[in-house]
C-alpha cells in the first residue's frame, strides 16, 4: 500500500513538473593564465506528461490491488 502511495506521489510531481525541471550546471574550463574560467549553463530535464500519467495510473493500480487483499 505504501509503495502505491509513493508511486502515486511521484506521478503527481511528474505532472506538476511537466514543463521540465530547471537546474544550473557550473563547468570549470581549462585555462593558461592565472584567471579562473567558470561557465554557468542552465539545463532542463524534460519530463513527458505521458510518463507522469502512466506513473500516476500505476500507483493507483498498486493501491487498488493492495486494498483488495
Number of domains: 1
Instruction: Output the strand order for the largest sheet.
Output: 1-2
Average of pLDDT: 88
Instruction: State the end-to-end distance.
Output: 10 Å
What Rg is obtained from the alpha carbons, in whole angstroms? 20 Å
Low-confidence stretches: none
Helical segment tally? 2
The shape is rod-shaped
Beta strand %: 25-35%
Task: Please tell me about this protein's structure.
With 69 residues, the protein is of the alpha+beta class. The chain has one domain (2-68). It has helices spanning 2-16, 49-68, and strands at 21-29, 37-45. The chain has a two-stranded antiparallel ribbon. Strand 1 and strand 2 form a beta hairpin. The radius of gyration is 20 Å and the shape is rod-shaped.
Summarize the structure.
The chain is α+β, with helices and mostly antiparallel strands and 69 residues long.
SSE blueprint and pairings:
Elements: H1 2-16, E1 21-29, E2 37-45, H2 49-68
Antiparallel strand pairs: 1-2
List keywords for this structure.
alpha+beta; 69 residues; 2 helices
